[in-house]
């Protein structure tokens, strides 16, 4: 049933990746939501995020969307998992990384999905279509949230729509997924804390027929250009003629004055290119002081901004959406107390802080810092400079391309919901080709591992008594584990926490 326009369980301001993902997570649990979004169409000309992490792909798989995202990606995951450091797209190679961004994880036991290179608008389009197809979620484009009033029973939001229309919507909960300039964040009196990097960057999307055939380095998802005069990055948006590049240290004014000159400098040769779009930006390291109130929550860029190096920005927002979505669904469905919602900030804010710190470390050494004037000199000068530059690149940039410790390894260890040493994502394995352990987890909680252990029966009884949805998946010889709806482990028999299943389950759903 489509939610009533005047009263919805959850209102979501913002239909970017975080807002649409929140609606899909709620729908996954059968909870209705309304997403309001001013943009009628996704912004095809502003590709922005291009890295969908292995973890985000696993979460998309959970909603049945991973295959569709891969179908829509213009660069197949098998096309390349490499990043090449060069003196120019058509220039000399300095060094390269393989297995970047988890793109090499297809069929690997570590993850149910490999990462995927895909432009943000294509991801948003898949998410929009999934919301449109859902019986529980509605996306209303052309509408923005302009104000809100929160009381003990819910939130009254004021919306502005086409032709000056104004409407009030009453919601049980409001999610502010309305991006960096969040109206919701301002309305609840929360500020970002942190800093910005003052160095300007200038993104260009360009079309250059025939350019791909001239590139001497083979397929790569990033071509870094360590040219002292014009450092930056270049990459393909599709296997036709569409490319993106980032000119580092270039102001909006400089960039817009002659974008074709910048493209030619990064390519390192003459090229006929049509400029399709430009996008100036500066990196920011900002974290909301708080993630919300009793009934209003911030998700995605509204809660945190990090430099794009490492490709974490939008992926962190999908993680927020899943964490917040299952908790709102649990509270609205009556099997968890409202106190569960306090754990959203306790679990997700530290992940954002760690992500910001890691992205800032990646930003400490960019193309301008790595460029050496001898790289563009004679062959002899290049040969003399190359080993040291290659070593510096490998030392300073490896973590940017190989960050599975963060992407798959972030934990909620130590938060009140988790008992003992648990808190990480359930260790993945393939049961058969294409048959992921994660495909056997329920939408609510799952008890998995060796169900012949004596605690198993106690968990089943506790879940029935508490009304918590619990599914069972017998998977010996793995130790018994209680897995949350978000695939994180709430308790494992290997830990030495309290062994009273009812207490463990009650704690996992937010009872003090
Ligand atoms: C130039 C640039 C390059 C980037 N490159 C990368 C990258 O390479 N990798 C990466 O991971 N990330 C990158 N990012 C970051 C990435 O784009 C964001 O992290 C991501 O878009 C965040 O998603 P979101 O849904 O939280 O916010 P947004 O995508 O900002 O979505 C917020 C939505 O809210 C809507 N909205 C705004 N105000 C209101 C309102 N009052 N009411 C209702 N709706 C409202 C907006 O229209 C928008 O659709 C880049 C960002 C920029 C600016």
Give an overview in words.
The protein has helices at 17-28, 54-62, 66-72, 120-133, 183-187, 252-257, 259-267, 313-332, 342-363, 367-370, 379-401, 404-407, 454-466, 501-508, and strands at residues 7-13, 33-37, 51-52, 83-86, 93-97, 116-117, 137-141, 144-151, 154-160, 166-176, 192-196, 201-207, 222-225, 232-236, 242-248, 274-281, 284-288, 296-298, 304-305, 430-432, 435-436, 445-449, 470-474, 481-483, 489-492. Helix 1 (17-28) packs parallel to helix 8. The protein has three domains: 7-47 and 119-195 and 285-361, FAD/NAD(P)-binding domain; 77-113 and 198-282 and 372-410, D-Amino Acid Oxidase, Chain A, domain 2 (2-Layer Sandwich), CATH 3.30.9.10; 430-508, Glutaredoxin (3-Layer(aba) Sandwich). A hairpin with a 2-residue loop joins strand 20 (430-432) and strand 21 (435-436). The chain is globular. It is an alpha+beta fold and 512 residues long. The longest helix is centred in the C-terminal third of the chain and has 23 residues, at 379-401. Strands 1, 2, 7, 8, 9, 10 and 18 form a seven-stranded mixed β-sheet that branches. A seven-stranded mixed β-sheet has the order 5-4-13-14-15-12-16, sandwiched between helices. Strands 23-22-24-25 form a four-stranded mixed β-sheet, with helices on one face. The site of flavin-adenine dinucleotide has 34 residues, from helix 1, strand 2, strand 8, strand 16 and helix 8.
Briefly characterize the structure.
The chain is of the alpha+beta class and about 500 residues long. Helices cover about 30% and strands about 25% of the residues. The strands form six sheets. Strands 1, 2, 7, 8, 9, 10 and 18 form a seven-stranded mixed sheet that branches.
């Amino acid at each position: 049933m489509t939610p009533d326009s005047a009263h919805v369980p959850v209102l979501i301001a913002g239909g970017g990746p975080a807002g649409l993902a929140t609606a899909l997570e709620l729908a996954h649990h059968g909870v209705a939501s309304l997403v309001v979004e001013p943009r009628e169409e996704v912004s095809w000309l502003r590709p922005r995020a291009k890295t969908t992490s292995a973890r985000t792909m696993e979460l998309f798989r959970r909603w049945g969307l991973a295959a569709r995202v891969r179908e829509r990606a213009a660069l197949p995951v098998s096309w390349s998992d490499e990043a090449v450091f060069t003196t120019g797209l058509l220039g000399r190679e300095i060094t390269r990384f393989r297995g970047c961004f988890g793109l090499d994880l297809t069929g690997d036991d570590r993850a149910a999905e490999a990462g995927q290179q895909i432009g943000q608008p294509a991801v948003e389009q898949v998410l929009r279509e999934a919301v449109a197809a859902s019986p529980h979620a509605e996306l209303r484009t052309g509408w923005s949230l302009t104000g809100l009033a929160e009381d003990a029973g819910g939130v009254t939001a004021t919306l502005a729509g086409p032709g000056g229309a104004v409407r009030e919507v009453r919601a049980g909960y409001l999610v502010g997924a309305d991006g960096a300039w969040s109206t919701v964040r301002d309305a609840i009196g929360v500020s970002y804390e942190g800093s910005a990097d003052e160095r300007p960057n200038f993104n260009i999307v360009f079309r250059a027929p025939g350019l791909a055939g001239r590139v001497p380095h083979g397929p790569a998802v990033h071509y870094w250009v360590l040219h002292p005069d014009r450092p930056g990055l270049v990459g393909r948006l599709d296997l036709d003629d569409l490319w993106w590049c980032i000119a580092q240290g270039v102001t909006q004014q400089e960039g817009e004055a002659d974008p074709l000159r910048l493209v030619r400098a990064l390519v390192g040769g003459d090229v006929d290119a049509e400029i399709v779009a430009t996008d100036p930006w500066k990196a920011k390291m900002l974290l909301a002081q708080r993630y919300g109130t009793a009934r209003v929550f911030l998700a995605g860029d509204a809660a945190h901004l990090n430099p794009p190096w490492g490709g974490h920005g939008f992926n962190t927002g999908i993680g927020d959406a899943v964490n917040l979505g299952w908790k709102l669904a649990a509270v609205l469905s009556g099997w968890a107390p409202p106190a569960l919602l306090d754990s959203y900030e306790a679990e997700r804010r530290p992940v954002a802080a760690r992500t910001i710190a890691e992205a800032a470390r990646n930003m400490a050494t960019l193309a301008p810092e790595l460029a050496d004037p001898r790289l563009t000199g004679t062959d002899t000068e290049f040969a003399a400079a190359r080993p040291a530059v290659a070593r510096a690149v490998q030392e300073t940039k490896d973590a940017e391309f190989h960050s599975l410790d963060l992407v798959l390894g972030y934990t909620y260890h130590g938060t009140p919901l988790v008992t003992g040493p648990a808190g990480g994502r359930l260790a993945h394995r393939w049961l058969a080709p294409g048959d992921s352990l994660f495909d056997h987890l329920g939408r609510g909680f799952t008890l998995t591992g060796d169900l012949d252990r004596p605690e198993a029966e106690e968990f089943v009884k506790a879940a029935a008594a508490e009304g918590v949805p619990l599914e069972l998946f017998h998977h010996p010889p793995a130790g018994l584990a209680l897995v949350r709806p978000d695939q994180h482990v709430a308790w494992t028999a290997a830990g030495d926490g309290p062994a009273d299943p009812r207490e463990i389950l009650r704690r996992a759903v937010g009872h003090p």
